[in-house]
Design a protein that fits this description.
The chain is of the alpha/beta class. The protein has three domains: about 160 residues, no CATH class; about 80 residues, no CATH class; about 50 residues, no CATH class. The chain has 14 helices and seven strands. It has a five-stranded mixed sheet. Helix 7 packs parallel to helix 9.
Length: about 325
């Protein structure tokens, strides 16, 4: 499954909240899960165009990740923790009836996690044993992986051979010009994610953010899609520098006045102030769970990203996801 970091890794400056001094780790897993659920077919068009053409896009895919977790009925704790846990299993409806199992495994961690090819083969074997159906497999690499990593799993002994190859989409291999010229909404988020991976300084991230949001303003997509895409872009290219954030908010307001941006999610400090204000108005102490849950519900209703809510309420991301369901 996805992995934010291995246990022996120290948090980077990208993962540390400057205002509170507390360690913050961006929820990569949640980000990609949300993207898959919101823009599944758009992402499928980029990653597996053949399956996209065969899919019945008038019907929603069926997510089987909870069922797949039951397949991994093992006492081995390593199987139930990142990066050893397959992320998504879906049933994609096909034109003319029928369905094909399509496994999505999101590998966020660029280092560690053992042999990716062997792990993918292991998951494929579990799926087949349980469902008696061959899944299509896709790995989206959202960080740097070891050089010369095998693209397939191969094993041969005493005349018995196994060879397993899976589909792979690596952010760093995608072409910038193609992504920025694309009319596919998912491509713009992939571009933002690639920019985040390449950002070594806040100023560089700020420039990437402005460019990406400007591209969003030029697209003729629906208001709802633009709103959601803006949330994804700002989540993956989150600014911590207060001066740059202020400049960006001013620039974003300008785009809004020009009618290019139709929804402006609240900035980090605005959310923090709303949490304090709502906590006072409801007569609850900020540290009490009940008050935090009520604030989180209100923020979710306002379209605030889960990552921002986690940072400012201290609630675990799992609790936020429960509120979203």
């Amino acid at each position: 499954m996805t992995a934010d970091a291995t246990k022996d890794e120290k948090p980077t400056s990208e993962q540390t909240g400057e205002s509170s001094g507390e360690t913050y780790r961006f929820d990569h897993d949640g980000f990609w899960k949300d993207l898959i659920e919101k823009f599944f077919y758009s992402l499928l068009k980029r990653a597996l165009p053949e399956l996209y053409e065969d899919a019945d896009k008038t019907r929603e895919p069926r997510f089987l990740d909870k069922e797949f977790r039951d397949i991994l009925n093992t006492a081995d704790p390593k199987i139930h923790t990142s990066p050893h846990f397959a992320d998504y299993l879906l049933e994609v409806p096909l034109k003319g009836g029928g369905a094909e199992w399509f496994m999505l495994h999101f590998e966020i961690q660029g280092r560690g996690g053992g042999s990716l090819a062997e792990r993918m083969y292991y998951y494929k074997s579990l799926i087949y044993c349980h469902y008696r159906r061959e899944p299509a497999a896709l790995v989206i690499i959202t960080d740097r992986r070891p050089e010369n990593e095998p693209r397939y799993y191969s094993h041969s002994r005493y005349g018995t051979e196994s060879n397993y190859r899976y589909n792979k989409l690596s952010l760093m291999d995608l072409d910038d010009d193609e992504l920025t010229a694309s009319d596919n909404p998912a491509d713009l988020v992939l571009y933002a994610a690639k920019c985040s991976l390449r950002s070594s300084a806040e100023l560089q991230k700020y420039n990437f953010l402005r460019k990406t949001v400007e591209l969003l303003g030029e697209r003729g997509w629906s208001k709802n899609d633009k709103r959601d895409l803006l949330l994804f872009i700002e989540r993956i290219l989150y600014l911590k520098d207060e001066k740059l954030e202020a400049q960006y908010i001013e620039y974003r307001q300008q785009l809004r006045q020009e009618g290019k941006i139709v929804f402006i999610p609240m900035g980090e400090r605005e959310v923090a102030e709303q949490i304090k204000r709502q906590g006072r108005e409801e007569g609850r102490l900020e540290g009490r769970l009940e008050g935090k849950l009520e604030v989180a519900r209100n923020l979710l209703a306002d379209g605030v990203s889960p990552d921002v809510i986690v940072r400012n309420t201290g609630l675990p991301i799992e609790k936020i996801r429960e509120l979203m369901n």
